[in-house]
């Protein structure tokens, strides 16, 4: 199979495992997963949307990172599943500057109310007093979802 072109928009698709009570030999013929809702699509081509994912314990919230957006400024979006579809929860969280790869790692708490976002590129603070020194000092930012805002 051919891989998609590098410039293609990234998608995230979430699946739910079905509980099947059938003969084991028939399992190989049936798909054990069913997609929940439609694909969730990134903002722009080659933003690497979906490269980092994390779900709440019940699987109804998902955080999705896009570390390569806007020269690796990156962003993260959180979605909630209800009524057979995914809706964005709060606004998009953008990295504070380029070359940080913000959204390279994401982790939602079990209840989906806290979100840790990792960035492996330039940290938010100058290194040795030089703004823009990108020696790979990363950082993690933690958010809490309160009254509709991260």
UniProtKB/TrEMBL annotation:
This protein's record includes keyword Signal: yes
Signal peptide start-end: 1-28
InterPro entries linked to this entry: Integrin_alpha_N (IPR028994)
Keyword annotations: Signal
Superkingdom, natural source: Eukaryota
Name of the protein: Uncharacterized protein
Species this chain originates from: Calcidiscus leptoporus
